[in-house]
Amino acid sequence: MKQKRTTIKDILQTAVVGQTYLVKGWVRTKRGNKNIAFAALNDGSTIFNLQVVIDIAKFEEDTLKQITTGACIAVTGVLAASQGQGQAVELQAGSIEIYGTADQTYPLQKKGHSLEFLREIAHLRPRTNTFGAVLRIRHAMAFAIHNYFNDKGFYYLHTPLITASDCEGAGAMFQVTTLDLQQVPMTADGKVDYSRDFFGQPTALTVSGQLEGELGAMALGNIYTFGPTFRAENSNTPRHLSEFWMIEPEMAFYDIDDNMDLAEDFLKYLIRYALDHCHDDLEFLCRMFDNELMERLEFVLHNDFVRLTYTEGIEILLASGQKFEYPVSWGIDLQSEHERYLVEQHFKKPVILTDYPKDIKAFYMKLNDDGKTVRAMDVLFPKIGEIIGGSQREEDYDKLRTRIDEMHIPMKDMWWYLDTRRFGSAPHSGFGLGFERLLLFVTGMANIRDVIPFPRTPNNASF
Ligand code: 4AD
Ligand code: MG
After folding, report:
1. Hey, which of 244, 267, 451 would you mutate to test ligand 1's pocket, going by the most ligand atoms within 8 Å of its Cβ?
2. How far, in Å, is the centroid of ligand 2 from the Cα of 314?
3. Phi and psi dihedrals of 377, rounded to 5?
4. Ligand 1 atom with minimal separation from the 250 CA
5. 3-state DSSP call for residue 311?
6. Sheet bearing 175-176, strands edge to edge
7. Which of 38, 51, 52, 453 could form a disulfide with 90 if both were Cys (CB 3.0 to 4.6 A apart)?
8. How far is the centre of ligand 2, averaged over its atoms, from the C-alpha of 388 (Å)?
9. Per-residue pLDDT for 410 more than 70?
10. Rounded to whole angstroms, how far apart are CA atoms 434 and 440?
11. What is the distance in A from the centroid of ligand 1 to the CA of 376?
12. Cβ contacts of residue 199 below 8 Å, gap of 6+?
């Protein structure tokens, strides 16, 4: 009977000494002497390697030569208790098959490459301990997100990636066109003739699934989206990507308080899930990059988020005596330095800021009775700043139309969105969690380029 492959994770967790196993993976290192060689094998199933013990006399020299760092091999052998330090068991190689060799030019020869260098070889960096850990945690968080909402009776709604409307009104969208850019068709009055484009109108990659998400909530009750979103803003920071993943729950009959309760519960669930399911990977990242990682995760888990209004937040910043790069006054869009001051210096807890000035927020947010502020909520986290942005939505047809007018959004594009306010409108709320911002927090990595397999940022779309 053909022997089945066992993953290294399973070997280390449940395998029985004395039994024969087949493992397949990539050689991380090989060392030894003229009688015996030790190869550390990793197959991605766990941060840990399996030590393969090779009795040199038993193998052809040609085979042995090909077992180098980076090579992919299959090994069948008997599992034994290890005499060496650092591992409980090892596999004593009986037969070895070479799948793919790797010569001296393999860039991951030695340990300890800088994260900057690894970004230049993003096609190979998943084979490092660090990126193995990050990508396994990324998977676990995606799975936990679906789990959380499924358990709560939310439906996963697939919203389109190509859109003819601009949700956030930030004007930073990637255009989608099949027009020949060398020969753009023009109308008589000198404008681009989009009637000849693929969709017969200007289209772009979506910045958010929210508007369609609201349509879903107005029928299914509670929905969430989880997909890629695209922003063409030229922000070269450790917290911005041009292509990032966002989770956007949208709930009928939720007010802003229900919305905040959900956001806090959701974040705590995800952090708990990571601590419960990603222990080995988190411990590795904690040891390598961020000694306070575990503490920070536990801390968020066990503290209530502080809730206050934007206006109260501004007062605290003004009274702080702190010198900020961007001066503080009521009406400014808070910068990362302001958000982090509130979270890290002042409250030393996650903060939910609400009721922002309407002029710095999107058109769909519910107007407060003061006529100046909207029922917005941003969740601010230590080291990250804004991790969630959301709001109660304006459900009143006339007020929403007024906001659309004030913000010069073409009304003709919005008829379908406005229809939800014409037919059976209801109070509702939602928010967007930036998936990579969550991962920055959970993994303790410092740069958002290092928590997504293939980052897209200004001037970088390689791999
Ligand atoms: O605050 P934002 O722009 O809100 C929305 O898009 C709403 N439509 C969400 C909603 O209410 N359904 O973005 C939401 C979150 C931010 O808090 C941040 O975590 C993340 O998305 N985000 C980014 N993450 C990485 N790179 C970028 N360029 C990001 N822009 C926003
Ligand atoms: Mg925001």
Report:
1. 244
2. 17
3. -145, 125
4. 12
5. helix
6. 162-163, 203-205, 175-176
7. 51
8. 7
9. yes
10. 10
11. 13
12. 162, 164, 176
Q: What is the pLDDT of residues 54-81, one digit of tens each?
A: 999 999 999 999 999 999 999 999 999 9
- In ligand 1, the atom with minimum distance to the C-alpha of 235 is 28
In degrees to the nearest 10, what's the CA dihedral of 280, 282, 283, 286? 160
The identity of residue 422, as a single letter, is R
pLDDT at 205: 97
Q: Give 261's contacts (C-beta < 8 A, 6+ positions apart).
A: none
Ligand 2 centre distance from Cα of residue 150 (Å):
25
> How far away, in angstroms, is 106 Cα from ligand 1 center?
38
Give the tokens for residue 110. Answer: 């030695």
Please report which residue ranges of 329-444 form alpha helices under DSSP H: 336-340, 397-406, 415-422, 435-443
Question: Which residue has tokens 């659309």?
Answer: 404
At 171 the pLDDT is 66
Burial class (CB in 10 A: 0-12, 13-18, 19+), 142: middle
For tokens 């919305």, name the residue: 259
Which of 93, 77, 90 lies closest to 21 in space, CA to CA?
Answer: 77
The pTM for the full model equals: 0.97
What is the Cα Rg of the chain in Å? 27
Residue of 360, 396, 397 whose CA lies nearest to 168 = 360
Shortest-distance Cα residue to atom 24 of ligand 1:
434
Spatial separation of the C-alpha atoms in residues 451 and 460, rounded to whole Å? 16
> CA-to-CA distance for 281 and 24, rounded, in angstroms?
21
Residue 308 has pLDDT above 70, yes or no: yes
Maximum CA extent, the chain: 85
Q: Give the pLDDT confidence of 9-32 residue by residue, as tens digits.
A: 999 999 899 999 999 999 999 999
C-alpha dihedral sign at 219, 224, 230, 233: positive
Residues 7, 12, 13: CA angle, nearest 5 degrees: 95
